[in-house]
Amino acid sequence: MKYFLWKFIIVATVVVLPIFFFIKENPFDTTSFLSLEEKRMVAWQRARMQINPGRTNHLETFKNMQKNSEPLKNVNSRILIGAPPTKKKLLTIGISSVQHPQRSYLLDTLQSLFFASSPSEMKHIIALVHLADPDPKWLDQMVSNISSLFKPYIQARQLVVINTPLKNYLPLKDPKKKFNDTPAYIAFRSKQNMDYAFLMNFATNHSDYFLMIEDGVKCAPGFVTQIATILSAWEYKPYVTLEFSELGFTGKLFRTRDLPRFVHFLLLFYQQTPCDYLLSHFLDLLMKKKPIQFFPSLFQYMDNYSSSDGKFSSLSSKELEENDIDYPSNPAASIYTSLQVANGSVVMNAYSLDENFFYTKEAKAGSHLTVVLNIPAKVIQVQVLTGSDQKGENQLKEGQVELGYDTSNRYNDCDDYILLGFLVNGVLNKQVLSEQSGKKVKCVRLLVTAPAPSGIVVRHINLWIK
């Protein structure tokens, strides 16, 4: 009996003392964003981990506590430019920016974002910029530049600029050195974690999804449509983040309802490690071991500059290097169409790699030309060329290209199609954004979306496979 009593006293001491030590070494001041109860629960969980880490999921109590958390209410981020949209958008694109010693990349990033988005795409997004540098001269200059360069987007409520006063930031307390980092860099990335947290906190209620891009990136044309297509396919699937770039924190997409939990996590461990590593740990806590990545990357750094580490680097997307496009593959396939075949024309010519073409005298809305691969493949790029090569006549003005997947073993069709993109001036040339472990494509369908007033020439449907 005495043995069990002593064992209980020892275990209780091991559990309780770390809790009091954690609370003593981490005083609960008014600048903290976690309640006293939350910190007690985190301390208790850490003590349990020290006793039996194999049976305890790291910070499980904290995770459960934050399932229904709301945005932080005691953070006073202020709007410097613009106004939030009156109706909820599909996507908020967040950018956090500070001064850089060489030059400012923010204006270039915004210009790339807006130029890569069509007017119809802009109706569904809001760009949210967090000017996170406390220098008042820099703030005034950036506000002036943004106001003059992007006035139409500001007036349309498509661009909002905010700032968070320094009094809202947590202090640096005895930062621990990791990865041979200098004290200056530790301070930089600790503040950056808070910059990102305040940006996400402000973004929570303005859209259904939030996409983070870094200051100093360029955006692929049509990236909004490509992301919207993926979101449609993943609407009812479980995930924490979808990744549209493998570089730093750029291209990470969240459901906005999940942002508060990650914001709390960033602010709890803001001094521990950079934000992209914290995200990796966060996914581990939620038992999401494998990131959900889509390729090719939709974002690239400008001039090899990464704002996630505040310095120049040689980082580039390995996916772009691997997908160095050469001649089309056009694997063996059958062609099916509901278009009226003109005399002497052969529908297979649309898929051939020579100079032959397919011609139809009439194209009704809803008619199609579908390539059905003999063996489903990983398609990485699709090119559709219509119209006369020299004069641009006989183009398909209103049409779209779709990728098809087959789950029911159909012979000459697919049962699941997703939009790849629209023809512009009779042409589509687009890389396929696919999940790393995604399904293989069986069908590529050219669909007519409006009646064509004259005949149509389909010169080439070219496919590249991997």
Report how far the terminal alpha carbons are from each other: 69 Å
Main sheet: strand order: 1-4-3-2-5-8-7
**Parts with pLDDT < 50 across at least 5 consecutive residues:** 6-32, 44-59, 310-324
Percentage of residues in strands: 15-25%
The main sheet comes to:
7 strands, mixed
What is the global morphology?
A: elongated
Tags for this model:
alpha+beta, 12 helices, five-stranded antiparallel β-sheet, 466 residues
How does this structure look, described?
This protein is of the alpha+beta class and 466 residues long. It is 29% helix and 24% strand. It starts with a helix and ends with a strand. α1 (2-25) packs across α2 and α8 (183-203) packs antiparallel against α10. The model is unreliable at 6-32, 44-59 and 310-324 (pLDDT under 50). The strands form six sheets. Strands 1-4-3-2-5-8-7 form a seven-stranded mixed β-sheet, with helices on both faces. The protein has helices at residues 2-25, 36-51, 60-65, 106-115, 119-122, 136-149, 151-155, 183-203, 223-233, 259-268, 275-285, 318-322, and strands at 78-81, 89-97, 125-131, 159-163, 207-212, 217-219, 242-243, 252-255, 294-295, 299-301, 305-306, 311-312, 333-337, 358-360, 368-377, 379-386, 399-405, 416-422, 427-431, 434-435, 441-448, 456-465.
